[in-house]
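Action item from last meeting closed. Structure (157 res):
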């Protein structure tokens, strides 16, 4: 079966292992992930989990370069959640966001953050995701939930 996601239409999703997923996603990261200085660390398709490392740079910050603007942090956690969903679907689905909620617990300045995205519920057409950003000390910086539409390849008539 090929993918409904345009970036992975050439992939045979049925035979993809987690190691393959990691290699494929690392080989051609989404432009947003590159812009946010993201590095995919791990995927677990059975559990629907993706883990990233991001670097917050001064260009992402306000308040004299000390506090990362929330939109960048939102992009980071959204990237992890979407990647978890794409992994859960073994690259065979597209997962446009229907809704996202983000809670900011701590300010984050320049430095490293770790993002984890998780699939909480995976239905026929809708998925429920959540994710966290933590600093290098393990402090919770951001928690987010998201609802995505699961777009599957249409059967050929």
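Sequence:
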């Amino acid at each position: 079966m090929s993918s409904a996601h345009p970036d992975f239409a050439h992939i045979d999703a049925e035979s993809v292992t987690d190691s393959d997923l990691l290699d494929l996603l690392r080989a051609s990261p989404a432009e947003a992930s590159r812009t946010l200085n993201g590095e995919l660390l791990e995927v677990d398709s059975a559990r629907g989990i993706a883990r990233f490392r991001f670097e917050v740079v001064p260009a992402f910050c306000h308040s004299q370069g000390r506090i990362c603007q929330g939109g960048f942090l939102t992009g980071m956690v959204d990237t992890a959640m979407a990647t978890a969903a794409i992994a859960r679907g073994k690259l065979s689905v597209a997962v446009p966001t229907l809704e996202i909620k983000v809670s900011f617990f701590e300010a984050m300045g320049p430095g490293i953050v770790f993002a984890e995205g998780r699939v909480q519920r995976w239905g026929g057409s809708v998925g429920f995701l959540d994710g966290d950003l933590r600093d290098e000390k393990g402090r919770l910086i951001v928690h987010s939930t998201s609802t995505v539409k699961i777009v599957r390849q249409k059967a050929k008539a």
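Note appended to the action item: The chain has a mean pLDDT of 93.
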